[in-house]
Amino acid sequence: MAGLLFRSEHDVDPAVNVQQLSCKPHVQPFVGRIGGNQGIVLDRSDPDNAEYLRKVPDAAPLMSARDAFNVRGFTDLDLWRFAVVECVGTMMLVFITAWAAATPANIAPPTPSTPAGIFATTAFLGPLVGAFTNWLLLTLFIFSFSSVSGSHLNPTITLATFFARLISLPRMVLYLAGQILGGALAGWMLQSAFGSGQYSVGGCVIDTALVPVREAFVLEFICCLILIFLSFGVGLDPRQVRVYGAALSPWLVGMVLGVVSLGSAYTREGYGGASLNPARCFGVYVGSSFPGYHWIHWVGPIAAAIGHGLVYYLVPPWKA
C-alpha cells in the first residue's frame, strides 16, 4: 500500500535501525479508528491505493455513499476478525464497568444528613467512582484494541462513525453484531458473578414514577450527542493528530465518557445517568430483566449519531 497521508509516530528511519526485523506490526489503515485522529489512512487520490480501497473503502477519508453501502465488505475475512475483537473487547468492558456500578435491586436512595447534601451520599459518590473507573478503563481498552479493530466497543460510536461516512455498512453491521453479542455474554457472566439477576446498574436504571420516559429520552439523546461530538473532537479529528497524537487522545476520549457519565447521574432523583453505550445496558438486562424503557438506550444514540452526521457532512474536517 502506498500513499499514507500520515506516518505513524512510531515509524523510524531504517537507516538508524541497528537490526532490521523480518516482520512488522500489522495495522490496517482505517479512518474510524478511535484515538488515531485519522492518522493511519490512505490517500484516496493515489492510484496505487485503488485496488486496496475497493476492498476496504473506509481505509481513506471522503468515502462516497456508493462505497459506504457496498456489500462486498461482508466477504472480507479481516472485517469478521475485527468484529470478533469488538465482541471480546465489548464483553470485557461491559462486564467490568457494570460490575463496578452494580448494587442490589430495590435499595432505597440515601437521604442527605449533612450540610453537604447529596454530595455526601452514595447518590453522588457512586457516580463519582464510576466516572473515574470509566475514564481509566476506557482509556486502557482503547490503547489495547485501537490498533486492531479501532476500539469502538460501543454501538453509539459505531453508529456515529457510520453516519459520518467514516466506516462502511458491512463494518457497521458486523461491529454492531459483535458488540451486542459481547454485551449479552457480559450480562450472563454478570448474573453468574452476582449470584442472581436482582441488581441494578448505574446508567441503566430509571424510576419511571419519578422520571417520565420521554424526559429520560431527551437526557439520553443530548448526553449521547455530547459524547459523540467530544469523542470525535479529541479522537477522530485529523486536524488534531499533531496536537494530541496517539498517546494522549485515548486519555481524552476516556475522560469524555467519565465526565458525561458523572454529569448526567446525580442531578435528578430516579435517574441513574445516561447509558451512553446501548450494548452495556443490553448486557445488564440480559443478566436481569428488560424494562419497557430500554428502547431509549438505542433510539437516543441513533438520533444523536444522525444529528452529528448532518453537522459532520456540512463541516467536514477534510478538504476535498
Describe this structure in words.
This protein has helices at 50-55, 65-68, 77-101, 122-145, 155-163, 169-194, 213-235, 245-263, 278-287, 296-314; strands spanning 102-104, 199-201. The protein is built from 10 helices and 2 strands, in the order H-H-H-E-H-H-H-E-H-H-H-H. It has 320 residues and is mainly α. The model is unreliable at 6-10 and 12-16 (pLDDT under 50). The longest helix is centred in the middle third of the chain and has 26 residues, at 169-194. 52% of the residues lie in helices and 2% in strands. The radius of gyration is 21 Å and the shape is elongated. Helix 3 packs antiparallel against helix 4 and helix 6 (169-194) packs parallel to helix 9. The protein has a two-stranded antiparallel ribbon with strand order 1-2. It has one domain (71-314): Glycerol uptake facilitator protein (Up-down Bundle). The two termini are 21 Å apart.
